[in-house]
Amino acid sequence: MTPTDATTAPGRALLAHAGSTIFGPQWQCELAQALGRSDRTVRYWLAGTVRIPASTWPQLAAIARDRGAELAGLTKMLSTLERNPP
Questions:
Q1: How far apart are CA 5 and CA 12, in angstroms?
Q2: Local structure of residue 8 (DSSP, 8 states)
Q3: Which ranges of the chain does DSSP label H, i.e. alpha helix?
């Protein structure tokens, strides 16, 4: 079985981990919006009621990369201020 199989705990756990890491505690609605899905669909995925489409994983990876780039830029700005406070 692969992580994209929503009937397995690893696929659902990976979705939950990615969603909460990227979007924080209220991640389900934000993730659904970012993926162009309803929050109900995300809840079905988490419950294992509906299979997580394979196309979700590349979309999620792209969202994570974008968020990572945003955080890297923020980290750079904050590091600069840490060394040279305003």
A1: 8
A2: S
A3: 9-23, 27-35, 39-47, 56-83
- The tokens for 35 are 């993926």
Cα–Cα nearest to 43, from 53, 52, 34:
52
Domain-by-domain residue ranges, the chain?
9-83
Q: Are 19 and 31 in contact (CB under 8 A)?
A: yes
pLDDT along the chain (86 residues), means of 10: 61 95 96 97 95 95 96 93 84
In degrees rounded to 5, what are phi and psi of residue 63?
-65, -45
On the CB side of 81, CA atoms within 13 Å amount to 7
**CB-based contact 3:14 (threshold 8 Å):** yes
Chain Cα centroid distance, residue 67: 9
- pTM exceeding the 0.70 threshold for the entire prediction: yes
Measured in whole angstroms, the distance separating CA 62 from the mean position of its chain's CA atoms is: 9
